[in-house]
Amino acid sequence: MIAIISNKTPEERILEIVHYIEKQGVQAHVSRGVDRTVVGIIGNANPVLAESIRQLSGVEQVVKISKSYKLASRDFHPDPTVIKIKDVEIGGDQLVVMGGPCAVESPEQIDEIARLVKASGAQVLRGGAFKPRTGPYSFQGVGVEGLVMMAEAGRKHGVLTITEVMTPEYVEVCAEYADILQVGTRNMQNFDLLRKLGTIQTPVLLKRGFSSTYDEFLNAAEYILAGGNPNVMLCERGIRTFESYTRNTLDLAAIPVLQSLSHLPVISDPSHGTGRRELVEPMSKASVAAGANGLIVEMHTDPDNSMTGDGVQSLFPDQFARLMQDLEKLAPLCGKRFDTQKQPV
User: Which H helix or E strand runs over 3?
Assistant: First the structure.
């Protein structure tokens, strides 16, 4: 349940209310909005406790949240969450684009792609150092060495970095080198990993499981939020359906649905969502039109010879640059701004 407190209530009184709630053996999570402050109450919140909180001075209303996810719900946090990383804001009216290869392959490769990402106007460099692969003999990434390569390329060219973390024991080392940590579709319900991510403050991009419902997706985000990390982004990356022409079916409806259910930023992945290079550009634009806060797009200087074999869904640099130019024009029409800091190629 949640306790709604007027923003006219002094901060000292809000802290007293929070202290009282926590003394009852439950957790209190504070969310400050424009017009009100909401205290989320997590634990054995029974009717007796609800009534005692309702009687507290400064509490306007106590509302039960029927959803299994509490902290991820818009009932708890009516205003959109905006995650600020340096000069980039994710979740507000700024359109954020993350671009780069599926995997880091060499210092030269990631440095060149970082330069191209920056030159195009995108704000975040993506690249995997650890790669979960369906087959055990496929390229699995270069490990910590890849994290170092990407961090150096990001600093050199002035872009943020995002990389995938696969296991709890690698959370801290990945967070040391990357600005954003990604949880892939196969790990969406790796609860030990999610709990560990809740213990840090590094932003997390949580990808939807390819067979997961919206409810399951938001409950996975709840694990991270409940652990104490409020910096969570949801990523629609396509679901498995009966259609075999595309790698997955990009669920565009997920974007407005998730934004109606949750306050967390929603990112779209048209590369994994389609698995076909020629569909990435139109589905990127469709995602922005549907209200996505950002995109994560695969781009490679030599897609046909990428070590992961995912080149069929990776844009060539000129295609990526053209997409960025189109998004600059499209973003304002969709209520977004695309703040680019382009540099000469």
Answer: strand 2-6
Q: Average pLDDT of 33-61?
A: 86
The answer to whether the beta carbons of residues 313 and 247 sit under 8 Å apart is yes
Beta bridge partners of 4: 38, 61
The number of residues making up the chain comes to 345
CA distance 248 to 269: 11
Residue with tokens 């990357």: 178
The CA angle 120-252-185, to the nearest 5 degrees, is: 80
| 16 burial via Cβ count (<10 Å: 0-12, 13-18, 19+) | middle
What stretch of H or E contains 183? strand 180-183
Which pTM value belongs to this model? Answer: 0.89
133/130 Cα distance (integer angstroms): 10
3-state SS, residue 125: strand
**Highest-scoring range by mean pLDDT, 45-49, 50-54, 253-257:** 253-257
Closest among 39, 42, 17 to 27, alpha carbons compared: 42
Q: pLDDT, tens digit, for every residue of 69-84?
A: 999 999 888 899 999 9
Cα–Cα distance list, 223 to 15, 140, 229 (Å): 24, 27, 9
8 Å CB contact between 114 and 156: yes
Question: Contact, 205 vs 162, CB < 8 A?
Answer: yes
Cα–Cα distance for residue pair 149/73, rounded to 1 Å: 37
- Cβ–Cβ < 8 Å for 109, 125: no
The DSSP symbol for 81 reads P
The pLDDT tens digits for 208-248 are 999 999 999 999 999 999 999 999 999 999 999 999 999 99
Q: How remote is the C-alpha of 79 from its chain's centroid? A: 17
- Contact criterion met (CB below 8 Å) for 191 and 223: yes
Phi, psi of 29 (to 5 degrees): -120, 120
HEC assignment per residue over 295-310: EEEEECCCHHHCCCCC
- 56-90 CB burial, b ≥16 within 10 A, e <16: eeebeebeebebebbbbbebbbeebbebebeebbb
